[in-house]
Amino acid sequence: MNKPLSIKRILCCIVLATLVVAMIVMAATVMDLNTEVQRVSSLTPTPLPDYGSVFRVTPNPDAPTPEPVIRSGATGESVVKLQTRLQELGYYTGTVDGQFGPGTRSAVIAFQQRNNLQADGIVGPATTEVLYSDDALPAITPVPTPVPTPTPDTTSIAAIQQRLKDLGYYTGTVDGISGPGTRKAIMLFQEQHGLTADGIYGPATAAVLFSDEAHPILTTPTPDPALVPGLTADGFPILVNSDNPIPDDYRTVHLVDMRDYCDANVVKIKGSDIQGEKYAVDALMTMLRAARADGYTGWQVNAGYRSVQYQQKLFDDRVYAYRQEGMTGQQARAKVRQTVADPGASEHHTGLAFDLAITGEASFGATKQSVWLREHCWEYGFIIRYPADKTKITKISHEPWHVRYVGTEHSLIMRDENLCLEEYLEKYGN
Ligand SMILES: [Zn+2]
Question: Is residue 399 among the annotated active site residues?
């Protein structure tokens, strides 16, 4: 009888021991939690002495609850209010959707920059205060709202003909009737876009024709100087400067209205009356498309072809402005000649020179696009006509924005030998 009893005792002991261990573990957990609570509460800041306004942002339990900080990822009514206000001020051009995304953040940053606030894209108390006050400065140049381009009916023959005509492939009438002319234009377009040149308007051709990839027809430059404006009888680029005014009998061959002709997705044309010699404009478009492919966008043409009469007016206006500032006629003319050529002495008379700008940028020379242009224009037959290191020869201040088309057979040599046009013609011309 002793044996079963001792087994019972042992069992009792085990149960008791288990209970004791369980209680110890539970007690330890509770104590752990306590220490955690103590540790957390010890992190709560004790009110700091007043060090001045810089430190007043330290949470003070007595202060009224501050406006909540709104940042990327926030949603709801407060974001709607923010977007609406930024839109009013010209910073936000997106949809007022109550979603604080990248567009809203850029608008906040633009607002902060313009209003001398810390440009962190976060709407904190300082930004909020200025934003909803009467002191809030509106955006200088409101970012243009992207105009949704109407989707053309890519299956209508008239639309296809019109598109091919806009790009220079189709020269016939837009009559909605598919004939040999339309077929030939489609073939030409296909050839120049790496598509199967079968003249059949299939899905692949449609996809390219109505996309940004569609480029105007590329015409091989004709080497016959009689047909190519801007070349001398020997095939050299014509020199136009103060010592060499454009010949009286100089005639442009095919001026195009650039605003109609150029793809607005690639380049903005500042005035509706800016023209250019077609083959130079084509080269310009090829160049700017390449720039765009490299990630350099925002191009704008501020000047192209100018008649001698127009140049005269431009020159006289500038002289007048300097005379108003107190200069003598001679001083004013000398000053104007640093940036504006004498009538007859401007390269813009050729229709082969363009002044470029970047939309929204005041100084072209300070943009990354100008660096791209200086490095790559040569590959497309353009030269920076008035470089910084040649002002003594060109007698024109550095103009990083003024490009002149001369053709790659000349531009590449000028790049490789670092020659301005005057030097190049001196060395190789005549
Ligand atoms: Zn110019």
Answer: yes
Give me the mean pLDDT over the 119-144 stretch.
85
The CATH number assigned to the domain with range 255-306+346-428 reads 3.30.1380.10
Residue type, 8: K
- 369's CB contacts (< 8 A; 6+ apart) are 291, 296, 297, 298, 299, 358
Extents of the domains making up the chain: 65-131, 157-209, 255-306+346-428
* Coil, helix or strand at residue 160: helix
Centre of ligand 1 to C-alpha 292, Å, is: 22
pLDDT at residue number 61: 52
Place of tokens 């966008």: 297
Distance 391 CA to ligand 1 centre (A): 15
pLDDT at 315 over 50: yes
Domain 65-131 has CATH 1.10.150.130: no
Q: Which of 375, 399, 409, 417 is catalytic?
A: 399
Average pLDDT taken over every residue of the chain: 83
Architecture of domain 157-209: Orthogonal Bundle (1.10)
Identical fold for domains 65-131 and 255-306+346-428, yes or no, is: no
Could you tell me the distance, in angstroms and rounded to a whole number, from the CA of residue 59 to the centre of ligand 1?
59
Name the CA radius of gyration of the chain, rounded. 36
**Of the candidates 255, 265, 361, 235, which has an alpha carbon nearest to the alpha carbon of residue 307?**
255
Of 66, 80, 78, which is closest to residue 126 (Cα–Cα)? 66
CB atoms within 10 A of CB 365: 13
pLDDT at 244: 94
CA 269 to centroid of ligand 1, rounded, Å: 14
Strands 299-303 and 268-269: parallel
Question: In sequence order, what are the beta bridge partners of 383?
Answer: 404
51 compared with 65, residue with greater pLDDT = 65
